[in-house]
Amino acid sequence: MSKTVVDVWVADLTFPGYMDRWLKLGEEFNAKHPDYQVNVVGKDFRLFPVDIADAARAGNPPAVAEYYFYLVHQARDSVKPDGSPLFVPIERAVAGRDEILGEPNVLPDLIAAGREYYSINGELTAIPSVGTTSLIYANLDMLEQAGITKMPVTWDEVTAACEAVAAGPNPPEKPITWSNHGTFFQQAVASQGGQLVNNDNGRSGRATKADLSSKEILAFVKWWQRLHADGHYLWTGKIPDWENTYKAFDEQRVAMRISSSNDVNYMVAAAKASGVRLGVGIMPYNSHVPYHGNAIAGTSLSVTAGLDKAVEDGALAFLMFAHNPRNDANRHKFNSFFPVTHAGYNLLEEEGWFDEHPYHRVASDHVMKFPPNAIVDETAKANIVPPSTGAMMGDFAGNQDVMTNAMGDVLNGADAEERFAEATIEAQTVLETYERNIQGTGPVTEETLRVEYFRDAEWYSGLVMEKVQQLDYDGK
């Protein structure tokens, strides 16, 4: 008897063993559903959106396709040769069913941060597959030598910690570092309630105007600039340069590093190998304005529109299977991605994972709770948990290039307000160019489907991976 084939294309993020887990999920689903053949294919993370567009134009797109969080808008804009939408909102496809092919519907159990980010006009368009946020990591031995006894959670506390570390005994080269990367701008702007584009960050209507000179961006930029001018921030001179900010922490040339929650395992490995105590805290925020939550990062999975009913059901069932509590919890353990369902989080809690690995709890707390002592306005309080809607715009990667290049110039001496006023003009051009280039076809070119080169895949094969392998990838 022939099997129903379901092609699933995911971004191969190149982390060791990353695709092994995806392939195993496909094998386990196929064994459980012998009438189906789910084929999971890992695509080059730099080129996969163009591969999807090419397949769609040829009339054979995969049943399920993965996109980075900043490509949600491009996924929505993608069309088939007849001009109809390439993807169907997953909530619409599920149509309120409690289960698909016996796999329980996990959509109602998604944490709010993931649901809100991937929803448009209240409708969930895709299911989050990778969830990350930004965190601060610290060498607790260095902080305590400087008299700092708790992790800094605000910009002011980071500044005070930097001053204490710099003035303390045996100070490192610099107190703090982080990569010049767009995700930190997004976090800083979102936490202050700011927006990168108009029309409610592109969610109540298409974004038509970019703004990289808002008071929220400039507050972050000037705080960052002051840390650098005062000799506290280690600027590697490269963009984004995740590798050298990691090495600076690993070599104990800095006391603190801001990075992705995905780096928990790597930072734990560095601390363990060096024999230092590691502290992990939330992304520091501006305590002088109300806290509005932070924008998450990661990826999501979309379902192609117009599939044969059996194929669509198989695609949806596989997504529910891949996100069931056990698989959600295992994905977190292996890759440090925060669990995207309450059931996955609760399973980890029940099994004692977070008690044994407290570092891993921080990211989930960050996206599910308001920080202690934060100013929270009445609108935010009504949401109970910090909102996470982020910006939705065309060529988000191009926008990030503009802001990081501008920040590089500021760190090299340019006036912050003047340079980010110029950046706003550049970002506007990027936005308008995207809108012009998708007319009639949707995004199909490398320019309209640009993927930022956000990590050097190669550096994981060196020192950092040797250390992580010693942890057996579980953060112990």
From TrEMBL:
This protein's UniProt keywords: Signal, Transport
Major localisation: other
Record organism: Actinokineospora alba
Family: Belongs to the bacterial solute-binding protein 1 family.
Phylogenetic classification of the source organism: Bacteria, Bacillati, Actinomycetota, Actinomycetes, Pseudonocardiales
Protein name per the record: Carbohydrate ABC transporter substrate-binding protein, CUT1 family
InterPro entries associated with the record: Bact_solute-bd_prot1 (IPR050490), SBP (IPR006059)
Signal peptide: none
Gene Ontology CC entries for this record: cell envelope
Entry-linked SUPFAM superfamilies: Periplasmic binding protein-like II
Cell location: Cell envelope
